[in-house]
Design a protein that fits this description.
Layout (H helix, E strand, L loop, with lengths): L5 H15 L10 E3 L10 E2 L5 E2 L1 H4 L4 E6 L4 H16 L5 E6 L4 H10 L6 E4 L4 H5 L7 E5 L5 E5 L4 H13 L1
Parallel strand pairs: 4-5, 5-6
Antiparallel strand pairs: 1-8, 2-3, 4-7, 7-8
Helix pairs in contact: 3-6
Amino acid sequence: MAVVTAKVRVASALLCILLSGVACSTTSSDSSRSAGPDASDFPIEVLGGGEITEAALQDRDVVLWFWAPWCTVCRAEAPDVRAVGLDFTGRVELIGVAGRGEPPEMEDFVADTAMEPFRHVIDGDGSVWAAYGVANQPAFAFLDDTGSVDVVQGVLSRDELTERLSALSEN
């Protein structure tokens, strides 16, 4: 898959949003490279208080799970994301990236899906989604400790997510 500059990826993501609306994505799609947010996007507010800084993501293996509080596909995927995230505690950090909703709805989603063990950031303006080229939810961004980013748009099964986190934690 070709590496695309962040500027083109952001423009593509915005175009996809405009053309496709805010529908949930129900199938896995291709992986791609993305630059991710730049330093000006940090710090990012954490749901329930606090913030995540750029330094907190550097030199670590991190998975960003992009979700929306009203997304039924995200809600159905949450138990598998939770189980796999717990299996990799201490090796890979799972961070939810909540968008397209208001904080009270996001808090309800986290409580309803038992995702409390993980931090979730509030991406109210969509800048984190756009920085990773995420147009629809759910999606994942796999950040390895070397700074490489692999973005997957769509649902991942428990086995697919386990395989990706295994590979991420072994690098």
